[in-house]
């Protein structure tokens, strides 16, 4: 069963894989995502996407996992957006941004996500749980050699779809109540 509501925006690429809630899954998800993003022609975003996937997968592992339930990573692109979604079974534990002081060891993950992605948010997972997503606007279109070409120069329409694929958009005040960082 898919996690996201089908979008009227056609997908260019899509990959989805379920992971066992173990620490090794974070590394596996990060490596797979970097490979896919590079193969799809967006290597310039690979480092940022990798860090965001690590943060979202770690949050799902620490705050959203339940014994016997998998964590799902979905990576997709439209003509205008690259998006990652991490779904877990704990819908009642919604992420929120927190104020962090200099000596605190934890709590900066969502601040990194907010800084690296163009937008992020959280919504209900189809069935049980939640999906936390992050996305980047693709002002560039991939080409075979891996060199980006400006979409407008290539004669392609480019429309912003920020938020159209998600159910809740991030804001400066964060999200509801919960314990994720």
Strand order of the largest sheet: 1-2-3-5-4
Count of helix runs: 3
> What is the mean predicted local confidence, pLDDT?
76
How many extended strands? 7
What global shape is seen?
A: globular
The Rg value, from CA coordinates, equals: 16 Å
Query: In terms of per-residue confidence, which ranges show pLDDT below 50 for 5 or more consecutive residues?
Result: 143-181
Q: What's a concise summary of this model?
A:
The chain is α+β, with helices and mostly antiparallel strands and 181 residues long. The chain contains 3 helices and 7 strands; from the N terminus they run E-H-H-E-E-H-E-E-E-E.
Keywords:
alpha+beta, 5-stranded antiparallel beta sheet, two-stranded antiparallel sheet, 3 helices
Task: Summarize the structure in words.
With 181 residues, this protein is of the alpha+beta class. It contains 3 helices and 7 strands, in the order βααββαββββ. The strands form 2 sheets. The chain has a 5-stranded antiparallel beta sheet, with helices on one face. It has a two-stranded antiparallel ribbon with strand order 6-7. The chain is globular. It starts with 12 loop residues before the first strand and ends in a 31-residue tail after the last strand. The model is unreliable at 143-181 (pLDDT under 50).
Topology:
Layout: E1 13-19, H1 23-39, H2 46-64, E2 71-77, E3 81-88, H3 109-116, E4 119-124, E5 130-137, E6 140-141, E7 149-150
Antiparallel strand pairs: 1-2, 2-3, 3-5, 4-5, 6-7
Helix pairs in contact: 1-2, 2-3
């Amino acid at each position: 069963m898919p996690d996201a509501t089908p979008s009227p925006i056609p997908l260019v690429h899509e990959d989805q894989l379920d992971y066992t809630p173990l620490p090794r899954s974070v590394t596996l998800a990060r490596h797979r995502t970097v490979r896919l993003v590079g193969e799809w022609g967006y290597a310039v975003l690979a480092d940022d996407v990798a860090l965001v996937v690590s943060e979202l997968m770690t949050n799902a592992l620490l705050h959203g996992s339940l014994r016997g339930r998998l964590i799902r990573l979905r990576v997709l692109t439209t003509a205008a957006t690259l998006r990652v979604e991490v779904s877990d079974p704990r819908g009642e534990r919604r992420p929120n941004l927190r104020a962090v002081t200099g000596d605190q060891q934890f709590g900066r993950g969502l601040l990194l996500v907010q800084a690296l992605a163009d937008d992020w948010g959280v919504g209900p997972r189809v069935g049980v749980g939640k999906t936390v997503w992050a996305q980047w606007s693709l002002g560039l279109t991939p080409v075979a050699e891996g060199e980006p070409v400006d979409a407008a120069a290539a004669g392609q329409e480019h429309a912003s779809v920020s938020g159209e694929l998600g159910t809740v958009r991030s804001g400066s005040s964060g999200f509801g109540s919960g314990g994720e960082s």
